[in-house]
Amino acid sequence: MSLLSDSIYYEKSSETLERLTESLEDIGDQMEIDDYDIEYSSGVLTLRLGIKGTYVINKQPPNKQIWLSSPVSGPERYDFDSEHGAWFCRQKDESLGTLLNREISDALGVEITLPVK
């Protein structure tokens, strides 16, 4: 469980999802990808990559976490690591940014760098 205050959790999680949304929208505008769609509403970001699958990234305020559902690696829970300024999954020993950069780059066939640690 995260030791973040409610206000810091809200700030960090909102900033992360908004930055991801903007970056993924830019990628969609720059590349022609069949059935590419991104939606962000009420703390839930949904990225559809057609036949490559759908990513769902959402806030979990009771746990002060961000949860990810990936078509590649499945469900994961991320806690904010204030020392490194990153959302981190202890089970996989990997940050949210590292996982998303790798999986989405593989799905799109081009290297991307999302503005998230």
From TrEMBL:
Alphabetized InterPro entries for the sequence: Frataxin, Frataxin/CyaY, Frataxin/CyaY_sf, Frataxin_CS
Claim: Iron is one of the keywords in the record: yes
Record keywords, A-Z: Ion transport, Iron, Iron storage, Iron transport, Mitochondrion, Oxidoreductase, Transit peptide, Transport
Protein's GO biological process: intracellular iron ion homeostasis; iron ion transport; iron-sulfur cluster assembly
Reaction equation(s) it catalyzes: 4 Fe(2+) + O2 + 4 H(+) = 4 Fe(3+) + 2 H2O
PROSITE patterns: FRATAXIN_1 (PS01344), FRATAXIN_2 (PS50810)
Subcellular location: Mitochondrion
A GO molecular function held by the record: ferroxidase activity
Major localization class: mitochondrion
EC supergroup of this enzyme: oxidoreductase
EC number: 1.16.3.1
Cellular component, GO annotation: mitochondrion
Keyword Transit peptide: yes
UniProt cross-references to Pfam families, sorted A to Z: Frataxin_Cyay
UniProt family annotation: Belongs to the frataxin family.
Stated name of the protein: ferroxidase
Organism listed in the record: Coemansia pectinata
